[in-house]
Amino acid sequence: MRPLPSLIGAAVLLALPAAAPATADDSSPSSFQIKDPRIAESSGLAASRAHPGVYWTHNDSSDGPYVYAVDSRTGKTVARIAMRGIGKPRDVEAVSVGPDGNVYVGDIGDNLGGQWPHVWIYRFPEPRKLRDMTVKATQFTVQYQGGPRNAEAMMVHPKTGKVYIASKSDENGGLYEGPDTLSPSGVNVFRRIAPIDMEVTDGAFAPDGSRLVLRGYFTAAEYRWRGGKPKELEEEPGLPLQRQGESVTFSPDGGTLMYGTEGRYSRVSAEALDGELLPDATAKEQKRNGGGTAGSHAERSEDDKDRTLMKVALTFGGALVLLLGARRLFRRR
């Protein structure tokens, strides 16, 4: 876990009330709270392909070779997967499920700001039955064109199976494309294909591959994916205020973005999509059915309440900082 990159982030952390355990909100089944106390630094999120309603997540550094399957209907962990056959994970930051039925885990963080000569990606088959188990994983060595990068976002395209990594930099960020097929022997060089003008903490492809979403601590952007390249959309997806926004993924139907954050008993917040933000296949399906995403109004209402509380907390925190500053100035005088 790393500190937020600005004084604004620090103010948010100071002003927000502490998270408390809560039951899942039945009126918005796509939003849920992670109830496993072992998941204290959820840093990546991916919807399962084999198990509807289940999301894969993992801790940041210092947890070991573990990935957790969380049931969004209850918030409970239904499986903890231990990976064997790999080295010691250094800074796991991302997870994605590919069209080949494999779960990809990105050990791509670099707390030194981009100095590791290489990073790793691990891959294992998504289990048919969910229970605690140890699985054989394949390890891939990754290097970047142009030298080391710090990164927290790794995405597998749901049609081509290509792996992409977005670097974490607000000055020279970029999207990097891996080879057509990852090789477990030798080095897999990821080449820069597009600039990214934000500090990215996670990303995900839509289920049909027509959209790419990238998120940061305080911003999110969505791109139309065509011909293997991203084109940023004018509309921006909704982004909930979170203590330390670390993860994002699409719901299996493509109509909702699921945003995760670090912290024990953290909440995964659902944001319904509409307009050009909807993936092509999802928009066609909704048009065919003559309606939008079920439960989206309830989810928006719940998250609107959260935003209101957070805004009040921020206002109070700002006033408190000003008051303390005034008192210090008065005492000095």
Overall radius of gyration: 20 Å
The largest sheet has its strands arranged as: 6-7-8-10-14-13-12-11
Average pLDDT level: 84
Structural class: alpha+beta
Q: Portion of residues in helices?
A: 10-25%
Strand content: 35-45%
Question: What distance lies between the first and last C-alpha atoms, to the nearest angstrom?
Answer: 40 Å
Verbal overview:
- With 333 residues, the protein is α+β, with helices and mostly antiparallel strands.
- Helix content is 17%, strand content 35%.
- The protein contains 3 helices and 21 strands.
- The chain has helices at residues 7-15, 280-289, 296-332; strands at residues 32-33, 42-47, 54-59, 66-71, 77-84, 94-97, 102-107, 119-125, 133-136, 138-144, 151-156, 163-167, 174-177, 187-195, 202-205, 211-215, 220-226, 229-232, 245-250, 256-261, 267-272.
- The protein has an 8-stranded mixed sheet with strand order 6-7-8-10-14-13-12-11, with no helix packed on it. A 5-stranded mixed sheet has the order 2-3-4-5-9, with no helix packed on it.
- A hairpin with a 6-residue loop joins strand 3 (54-59) and strand 4.
- Helix 1 packs across helix 3.
- The longest helix has 37 residues, at 296-332.
- The radius of gyration is 20 Å and the shape is globular.
- The relative contact order is 0.15.
- The model is unreliable at 1-29, 293-301 and 307-333 (pLDDT under 50).
